[in-house]
Amino acid sequence: MSSAVSAPSRLPALDALRAIAAGVVVATHVGFATGITGATAFGGLLARMDVGVAIFFVLSGFLLFRPFAYAAATGGRRPGVRRYLWRRALRILPAYWLTVVVCLAVLPGNAGVPRGDWLRFATLTQIYAPGHLHEALGHTWSLATEAVFYLVLPLAAALALGARWRPARTLAWLCGGGVAITGGWLAAMAAGALDMGLHTMWLPAFAVWFAGGMALSTVHVAIESGTAPESWSALAEAGRAPLTCWALAAGLFVIAGTPLTGPRDLTEPTPGEFGTKVALFLVIALAFVLPAAFPGPGPVRAALSSPAARWLGTVSYGLFLWHPFVLTLLNPGPGSANVAGFARTYLLTVAGALVLASASWYWLEKPVQRLGRLRLARPFPRLFPRWRKPATTPAGSAVSPGSGGSGADQERADGSVPSQSATSAASPAS
User: Fold this and answer.
1) So where are the chain's domains?
2) Whole-prediction pTM value?
């Protein structure tokens, strides 16, 4: 087994999809804020642009599961759990915490927010009781759901991948598990055991979206490593026809914009309407992501991989975080409930949020991640010291760890013990 963590190839086109998904989420929030949502057929489509959340979740499942699957397929060492979680925390928490502090401290609508809610937002637990999503922070429910996925992913990867690489088994586990979890959650909602307002924000409601991304990642890794069944290559061929994939996504999106998926306002849907929406959004998100996962040559690939698209992908997290704050400051009035008013408010919201997102990236997120990489260059200390029975000399006297025993018996500074092979291979020159 390789001693290095396997690293799959980078797919730069996926950066652009994050930016598009963020822009779509902005559109649905601007639609509700201007009052145009639901008033016309166009407003009905705006009400369903929360499909961007499905794209985010599918992308998370695809990208974060891929290193685990690639390591299993190539015989490499799987990502360490502590390092993986450290990277996730560095990626989402600094900018998120800054957004929370600014929104709670600056916006008048958040005056007098209880201290307990500050703690809930800080720990991403604001979705586990009603009434704790405050002004310009309602969208953070999806981050709270993502955070739980981050925590359970290593265990889910271990269960789905098993002891050796069998992509067909992994695919079956992921598809079956995702459908079973979300399906069971929907059944509990239909039975009245769960609340349609609160429990539709929890991870099980969207497990099938994350599982769909992980399943796509499994197929991608299997094809990339040459271990996929021959029939799976059809999926890669479909990805090389981006216009066809996106036409399918667009057609399903029009269907999702009808009352089939529930009310076009913020009224709670029925369990059946919510389940229909989840299923349609899953197929839409997979069809949308597929061409970026299996890109073929041509102008679409070039556009998605361009420097501008990749930069937008880089700051898209900040765009997602800050746009409700900007939208609240703009405070569009009733006169904006038309296409022109929507377009004007949308452009101003995106422009303002991109300014804040850029500042956040260059002055906070990027420096913190740089420091985090330096931390990763050093070994993580043990949480608890390893207990070892003191070694004894032939005469029976104990040898203390610092008294000059062999390298194999001494602990390193980080609390780990070097292996015998590492000790014997070390030379004065190294």
Assistant:
1) 13-376, 380-430
2) 0.86
Residue appearing with tokens 């360490």: 80
Predicted confidence pLDDT, tens digits, the chain (430 residues)? 444 445 677 888 898 999 999 999 999 999 999 999 876 778 889 999 999 999 999 999 999 999 999 999 999 888 999 999 999 999 999 999 999 999 999 999 999 999 999 999 999 999 999 999 999 999 999 999 999 999 999 999 999 999 999 999 999 999 999 999 999 999 999 999 999 999 999 999 999 999 999 999 999 999 999 999 999 999 999 998 999 999 999 999 999 998 899 988 888 999 999 999 999 999 999 999 999 999 878 888 888 889 999 999 999 999 999 999 999 999 998 788 889 999 999 999 999 999 999 999 999 999 999 988 877 666 555 544 554 544 444 444 443 333 333 333 333 333 333 333 332 333 334 3
Tokens 């008013």 appear where? 341
Q: The tokens of 421 are what?
A: 């092979």
Which residues partner with 392 through β-bridges?
398
CA distance 235 to 424: 49
